[in-house]
Each structure stands twice: as C-alpha cells, then as structure tokens.
Amino acid sequence: MTSESLTVDTPAGTVRATAGPRQDDAVVFHLDGAMRGSVHVTGTHHPHHWDQFTAVRACLGPVNAYQTTAPDDALPRLTRGRTRYHGSLTLYPDDYADRPQVSVYPMTSTDGHEPSERTAATLTAVLRACAAHIAQRDDLPVLLDLSPTPR
Predict the structure, then answer these.
(1) pTM to 2 decimals?
(2) Phi and psi dihedrals of 47, rounded to 5?
C-alpha cells in the first residue's frame, strides 16, 4: 500500500502530511514542509450522541490525547520555530446541515501560551485537513469501531 499524502496550504507555508499505515484505532500523519511533527487521528463520539462513535478527532502529536499526553519533544512545531504545540480538532458529521461541524480545542504552546493568530490558523488547517481526509476513507467504519473511549 502506498502512503497517502496531503498538501495543505497554510499561512506559514505548505505542509505535507503523509499518512502512515492504519494502526488499530488510529492513523498517524507525519508532517513536513512548513510544519514538522505528527498528527494522530482517531474516531470519537458526538457530544449529543456520546454512545455513538461517528466523529473524527485529530490531535497534535503522535498519540491520542484522550489516552496519554505526548512528550513535549514529540509535539509539532513550525519549521522555523522551536515552540511546540498541544491541541486538537474534532470533525462531526451533521445530520441537519450540508457541511460537517468542527470543534477546535484550545491550542497552547508547551510553555502554556496561546499561539499567534497565524500559528493557530496553521495548526487548525493541518488538523482539519488530516481529519477530513480520514473522514473520507473507506476504512472509516473500522476506525470508528476500534476507537478508544475517552477517559
């Protein structure tokens, strides 16, 4: 199987996200270009349907933030910066609208500061692209069935 690659245009420049093979309950994208690091994508539930795993959650870093926290040195950073970032985005299917709903959870640097508007837009664009890609994959039902329950 060939790796799936995305090209994401962001305010910081072009980011290439390459999907690794599906792990049991997730796909990890490796980032290159204007952003380095990884994004972990797994299934999750909709807040109104906590028992139905129908949404896709993308987290900055190589691990599911519901399960554990990635070490600071494993978190993504902009290529020209040293600061690494925490955060996630959830993409929900919406039964009542033409487009999916998106929730972005607070993005912070490892030292606890909010990213600049430009950096936040870059992080959000990458998370959204990775989540949207997984939401369109043929193996999404398998990923949703294997999704871990939030703790």
Answers:
(1) 0.88
(2) -55, -30
Q: In this structure, are residues 43 and 24 in contact, taking their beta carbons and an 8 Å threshold? A: no
Phi, psi of 141 (to 5 degrees): -60, -35
CB proximity list for 66: less than 8 A, separation 6 or greater: 44, 57, 148, 150, 151
Per DSSP, what are the bridge partners of residue 33?
15
Distance of CA 147 to the CA centre of its chain: 14
> Would you state the pLDDT for residue 82?
93
Residue 16: what are its φ and ψ, rounded to 5°? -105, 125
Low-confidence ranges of the chain (pLDDT < 70): 1-3, 46-51, 65-67, 95-100, 148-151
